[in-house]
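Review form for a predicted model. The reviewer records the input and the model, then writes brief findings.
Reviewer: anonymous (R2)
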Amino acid sequence: MSKLLYLIDDQPEQLDLLTVYAKKSGFEVKTFTRAADCLEDLAKGTTLPDGIITDLYMPEMDGITFIQSCRKQFGDSIPILVLTVSDSTTEAVKAMRKGAWDFMTKPLGFERFQVTVENMLERQSLKKEIALALRESENRAEFSDIIGQSEKMQALFKTMLKAAPTDMPVLLNGESGVGKELVAKAIHQASNRSEGPMVVVNCGAIPENLIESILFGHEKGAFTGADRKAEGKFKAADGGTLFLDELGELPANAQVKLLRALQEGEIEPVGATGTVPVNVRIICATNKDLSKMVKDGSFREDLFYRVNVLPIHVPALRQREDDIQLLAEYFIRRAAVQNNQDPKTLSKGAISFLTGYPWPGNVRQLENAVYRAIVHAETKTLEATDFAFLSPDMTFQIEDDPDEEILPLEVIERRYIEHVLDLCNGNLTQAAKKLGIGRATLYRKLPQGGSDD
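Model under review:
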């Protein structure tokens, strides 16, 4: 998916030239003759650009004032280039001190434009990857960490923005792998509790006999093996947010204590003779239908109404096809940064396959698939065949594309043989039968061989 540039210049002929250069470089564009109009568009927050190019000298609001306003509202999340005449480099340097990424002088040539803009966006992408890695190490996330431009994701962002400033409980519902924990962390980071802790608890991963102790803490000697006092997750999240993932897995006895903690703002550690006050905001998540669980008696009705104050549905990946290419390219860039390699690209065939695949494992499965394809790919471009492991029975349609790299037949043959061998767990005899060739022929085509079992 093409990156979006905002172009600002009060001179129509200069704006037309920038537009031609940007589109020739493969960017989508949105143009403005007034900087104030651009600020008004940015304030809507529907779709933010990947970068902005603005003239330095304009009536009403000049480039430096525009940059200062952008930095005040959006920090350094949007890189900005300024245009200036050759004898005004002093003002351009001043603009860079105010937050511009770089400047370009008029008259502007295409090659200079293309190189400067691509360098700006590449550096910004790297900066985002590093910032994300740092936030992940600190168990934090921001709205910008959630990739999505589809209508369903824009609706999700609006709901999240409404939920963030409040202290009301949030219930996130969605299939496994859609990113509910990332949504919870972003809500916390945008809330008034962002300076407080964000504590994550997977209710489905805790042994039933330890859930109360882990959530509410315990006194020394409260049970066998309790050789010291433990404060529990509720107390650890005091002043911040407690994220309870897989809430539907919580057993009945823990549901009672959770309800009391939410109603009274206090917990009773295991083995304690009194209660302990806590100040936490609760965000819960589940991939189950809790309303059905209430009807069949496996989930308390009063607890359901207590946690379901602000319900938020996180859509499945197949419901947001427009975001699949964005996510895949994001994972490709991330892998390149992590492994200090040049990022690979996606062929049109690969994009077509990825957007048409149902993704039962959602974003988590897509991430895994992209990383796996990168490891095994033999060229700089990921083809549909590199994702054959996702659909063993898939067939590939060859499309006429003069710009797309044509793989040698032996490479395609070798990849398919390796795929069939993988399905047969390396058994040459079984693989040969599936391929309709003799075992000796298969062995010659694949010198490394396989097992005879």
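Findings: The first helix runs from residue 12 to 24.
Further findings: Residues 53 and 258 are 52 Å apart (CA to CA).
Recommendation: see findings above.
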